[in-house]
Design brief:
Elements: H1 2-11, H2 15-34, E1 47-54, E2 60-67, H3 73-82, H4 84-94, E3 102-107, H5 110-122, H6 124-141
Parallel strand pairs: 2-3
Antiparallel strand pairs: 1-2
Amino acid sequence: MRRQRNAARAKGPSQRQYRVGEELRHALAHILDHAHFRDPDLSGVSVTVTEVRISPDLRNATAYVTPLGGRDMDKVVAALNRASGYFRREIARAVVLRVVPDIAFVPDTSFDYSTRIDAILAAPQVARDLTSHDRDRDDEDGSTASGGADPGRRDGGGRAPS
């Protein structure tokens, strides 16, 4: 029995975890839109909740957030964590769950990561390597970038030479 549980955890989050995480994300977004915070670090700040991951026992949740424009990320995340009790209470009113999870807010760095990957792919050295790799693959296939037969070939294109 123990092995089956460990194997299930190795597969990744369950469908229930995804559903509850998405419900929590919607509830948090609604709370952040309509709440009036006393904390000066949260007042007037627009925060996006990009993802909520929840533990298999549905008792702990991690909310990935980013403030609009990415400014003051550390201050906003610290303020959200200070107000986690308030969010937990509001989620208890908004979402029907047997146990309301504890919520930890962490900065979402996926936008920074994707920007860095885009910059790497746009670098001249990488772009040169990518285009030469595409040409090499086309040469192996016997086709060209235009997708048709090469007009410069003497054997008539796709036919094997006789």
